[in-house]
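Support request, please re-run this one:
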Amino acid sequence: MANAGLARELEQALGQLLLRRNRSALYDAILDSAPPGVDRQTYSVLSGLARLGPRSAARLADEVGIDRSGASRYADRLEAAGLLERGSDPSDGRATLLALTPKGRAAVAELRNALTRHLAGRIADWPDGQARALIDGIRLLVDPPRD
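Re-run finished. Output below.
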């Protein structure tokens, strides 16, 4: 395998990126300006709903990598803050869907803008083309071309 060395380096870099402390560092960079109810724990629920759309707590928990009881607790806090609402699932009358409210969508937009500013600062001094190569590489990694 000609790219075994690069693949090993990629594995190590991704491992570092996915460490909780590194995700937390990104969250910390933006959560100072977050609305009440949004913190390290609830951010993953808020952000997950923004990316995935309405979901049951169980399905959202699975997709964002937290346990179901945590997702429900965090949803309670976000609901109390007016950032999400619960509604019935049209495809399953017994299930409840979590969905962002307009206030929740506005909060996500503000937090994403803050993260964009933070990341712009982090890549400002990178050599030409390096940020583009990283973006393109991540996209190829998570959504490989189909034959």
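The chain has a mean pLDDT of 90. The beta strands are 84-89, 92-100.
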